[in-house]
C-alpha cells in the first residue's frame, strides 16, 4: 500500500483557518495555533449572537411601539391587549415601522385598540 503524505490537506486546512482569521489583530491572524483558537471562538460568538440579535430587535420594536402608543394615551401592554381583543393581528416589527413611517395609520390602530378595551371607572 502506498504511503499517504498529508501536506496538501494540512496546508488547505491551515489556509482555510487563516482566511477566516483575516482582519484579526496581532498573531491571531497569521499564526495557525492562535488563529484556530480565535476562529473557533468567533464562530461560537457568531452562532450565539444570531440568536441574541432576534431578542435585541424585538426589544427595540417594543420600545418604539410603547413610545408611539403613549402619545395616544395608552401603554404598550394595554395597546397589545386592545389589538388582540379587536381581532387585529399585526406583528411588532410592522407596528414599529408603522409608528415611524405612517403615524396616521398607527393612530388609527391605537384608536381601534382603545375602543376594544373595557372602559375604566
Automatic annotation (TrEMBL):
Pfam families: Ribosomal_L20. Gene3D superfamilies: 6.10.160.10, Ribosomal protein L20. One of its GO terms (biological process) is ribosomal large subunit assembly. Keywords: Ribonucleoprotein, Ribosomal protein, RNA-binding, rRNA-binding. GO terms for molecular function: rRNA binding; structural constituent of ribosome. Belongs to the bacterial ribosomal protein bL20 family. HAMAP family: Ribosomal_bL20 (MF_00382). This is Large ribosomal subunit protein bL20. It comes from Hansschlegelia zhihuaiae. The lineage of its organism: Bacteria, Pseudomonadati, Pseudomonadota, Alphaproteobacteria, Hyphomicrobiales. The gene is rplT.
